[in-house]
Amino acid sequence: MAEPISVLVTGAAGQIAYSLLFSIAKGDVFGKDQPIILLLLDITPMLPVLEGVVMELQDCALPLLREVIATDKEEVAFKDLDAAILVGSMPRKEGMERKDLLKANVAIFRSQGAALDKYAKKTVHVLVVGNPANTNCLIAAKSAPSIPKENFSCLTRLDHNRACSQVAMRCGVPATHVKNVIIWGNHSSTQYPDVHHCKVSMSSGELACFDAVKDDSWLKGDFIATVQQRGAAVIKARKLSSAMSAAKAICDHMRDIWSGTPKGEFISMGVYSTGNPYGVPEDLIYSFPVQIKDKAWKIVDSLAINDFSKSKMDATAAELMEERDTALAFLAA
Asked: Where are the bilayer-spanning segments (predicted)?
């Protein structure tokens, strides 16, 4: 058996973590022969709830789970980490301005970035889930100067999975028959779900998405809007935000970092934009198509970008620059 790896989940008493922890602990993410030490961080008032989560994990009697440590202390939670999944953030409350949300989250992710810098392994892989995920990820990365920027990513896999599923349902095929959709930009309603490079396996063979769907106006209109607004639609229906699907996307994202992406396929994740081949402004966490090998991601280059796509990519970049500049002003204050 391999040596155990230490995996942190923040916001660990919340509903996303409740859907996530079982999958991590039973080996769906880091491998079926990889023992795990789970570190669970939450705020002090949530510790009694967290204790119940720990009991449940113990009661699952999982062979790979070596230890579960529940804490409200960063120096305990971030020590010697191999992977950090930062789910906890300040949620947007009714009547809250976006800048107020950013200010609250800058404080959280500056603190967690500093804790990563001080206590975690320099090889730690950090996934930011808490919204606004892209900008929170950038703040965490900037607050951990001794850890490579390439080790930080934010979750746009949920949007990627949503896009795959919409195309699959439209074509009457399983979601696994759809590959190489792209989410460009921000995990917000400005994101751009792009299917110009997507392939769909149909009974007649593999087709380009536009040939498989045969409805260009849907692909350039309602499809994009559906993926962009899906989170809000779930909240309206459930009165709660996406948890099961978010947890599944987190598992997909971390599994691909650990195990790599299949040959000829790429997935979407928010990564550091500096040096990218698509003219996206530098110093953002922006969602790109990436391929992963040996735990290192590489942006897929030389994809043709038409004017329709370029305008959408620019719009989401503009929002991210505004978010970044607001957040950095708070960081400097």
From this structure: none
Residue type, 256: D
Q: Please give the residue that has the higher pLDDT: either 165 or 98.
A: 165
Say if residue 98 carries a ligand binding annotation: yes
Q: Which of 125, 187, 197, 253 is catalytic?
A: 187
Q: What is the pTM for the complete model shown? A: 0.97
The residue count of the chain comes to: 333
156 vs 241, residue with greater confidence:
156
Q: Any alpha helices (H) in the chain, and if so which ranges?
A: 15-25, 47-59, 74-77, 98-119, 133-142, 157-171, 209-213, 216-220, 222-238, 244-259, 307-332
Tell me if 42 is assigned to a ligand binding site. yes
Q: What is the pLDDT of residues 253-275, one digit of tens each?
A: 999 999 999 999 999 999 999 99
Establish whether 92 is an annotated binding residue: yes
Residue 18 φ then ψ, to 5° = -60, -35
DSSP annotation string for 34-46: --EEEEEE--GGG
Q: What is the mean pLDDT of residues 74-90?
A: 97
Task: Say if residue 131 carries a ligand binding annotation.
Answer: yes
